[in-house]
Design brief:
Gyrase A, domain 2, BirA Bifunctional Protein, domain 2, about 600 residues, 15 helices, 3 domains, RNA-binding, OB fold (Dihydrolipoamide Acetyltransferase, E2P)
Amino acid sequence: MPTQQNRSIESTSLRTHLCANLRASDVGSTVTVCGWVARRREHGEHLAFLDVRDYSGIVQCVVDNAVDVRSEWVVQITGKVQPRPDGTVNKNLSTGEIELSDCTITVLNAAEPPPFPIDARADDVDENVRLKYRYLDIRRERMQRNLRIRSKVNSAIRGAMEAQQFVEVETPFLMPSTPEGAREFLVPSRKEPGSFYALPQSPQLWKQLLMVAGIDRYYQIARCLRDEDLRADRQYEFMQLDAEMSFVTKDDVLAAISKAVVAAAEAVLGETPPTIEQITWRDAMNRFGVDKPDMRFGMELVELTAVFSSTEFKAFSSAACIKGIRVDATLYPEQAAYGRNKLDALTDRAKQIGAKGLVWMKVGEGLALDSPVAKFLSDAERASLVSSMGAQNGDLLLLVADEWATTCEVLGTLRNDLARPPVHEGPYKYVWVIDFPLFVGVNATTGKPQPGHHPFCQPHPDDIERLESDPMSVRALAYDLVLNGWELGSGSIRIHDPEMQRRVFRQLGISDEDADKRFGFFLQPFKYGAPPHGGFAFGTDRLVAILAGEENIREVIAFPKTQSGSDPMTNAPTPVNPAQLNELGIRLLPPPAKS
RNA sequence: GGUCCCGUGGUGAAGUUGGAGUUCACGCCGCCCUGUCAAGGCGGAGGUCGCGGGUUCGAGUCCCGUCGGGACCGCCA
């Protein structure tokens, strides 16, 4: 055993080397490894091979078949590194040229057979079983790799932020409830029964206060909690790089965040991504039909309103906006050849999203259009449509005529449904979506506009004069970062002027008194000299998943929850002792009656 | 709250028109085996077909409900 002084970083009091780091250059030396028995191959009374695994990988040990060690037993093995005999080298292993012989085996712990194989075959095992035995799942190479990528990303982000003089400040987990936005997790107060803390949806309020406080540049790799339904890219708990800067414009923020994202990608992939391009929200909607465009593939929306400006076809003549997408028969032969059933399913999908209908046309020989509605169009309209869309024989054209937003959203969804590759497939396409609208839609109960991002976003300076006269046309200094069609995060320049904040609140239907009541602790500080500031937050789980080649963030989280929010390993959430509830002043309602 | 898919020894699958808990691979246990590397050979154990109800002479299979898991819509300022 080495002494404390002369050890390599990976050696410990119990081992000299990691399994997979032994090489032909170590031949002749006596080494000690520790790990789990990955596999045992028996070859008669006095010969067996053990594959011993630690996080680095495996090494083969030659032992007497009499030794009693089995799958997943924890062993310490001291042996001599020797070259493998001619013809027995395994090129698939980093340690394939050598093996350990004359082994002394110490069983550190026996083990029951695992419920699933601790290797790539467990990729096919029911995820519920993997989560129930997550500590075994994580022994596998895939999870080891993913969690180490995650660590690298966090480290690279910290490095990039520190290099830009951002200061890491931790913010509270227990805070007042602010019911706007996502549903919060509540924590009952013991000392004030009937009162509750909320867990942070994000550190948004705190980081703006830190700007008032003169921190200048704040960051935190922060845990955020939202009690909303889970998805492949959403967990109750998730991590964000949260950042805020003083005395900046949008471009300063984008540049600072870009450095962190680029550093993370570099650390994982070993190559620098190209400069992140920008697209306005309106262009994104017009070209891709979504505010998180996947720009890895084409099939962009084509503007057709002018083509049908004087059409007699009623569904088109009454529509504010007509657009189409072209399913290229060369690139997407299967989709372009969809039969009636599939086309009906697409129509249902379009209606589900809010369209009145979906017009499909199949392009045939001589660029003739085969469609239930073709007969309602003039020859000139058909020809103009074909040329506008660049249609070729065999293509499928999908058209929607509706309000602008509906037309875009429906075609954008169909475009993704028909042609979007898995999120982790390269090439990685990062894009900043800028100039989001300040308000989106109308609150059903108040009839007032709703904030597009959050109520503290600075309106675009060119649009401020229309804040009262035409609020829905006002852009915000708000921006999203999108990677391969996944929203990584969003940010904005914030309002730092109390008067401007009041004007925006009024548009949202929040009176000055309401604002004081709901946001008082947050607005009060802004009277004491708030610097112009802005910031951003992006989800690191999503970034790690994509960089790790995973389609689901559960694969890059050590102990995630299932879609219903439970943990098969701990069984959380669980009922609690009535005494605990009493102490908190909480009485449970009877379970809802089942109808 | 909604739509769709899945649930069969420890794991993954197959199971026909409704006809005996049947089959395959891996794992597990035992025996054999001196150069394998997802070793190989022989033998064996292992099941409330998620659960409950219904139809039927008979249900893994059909119907209803329910639980669990997954994908999506709503939701996620």
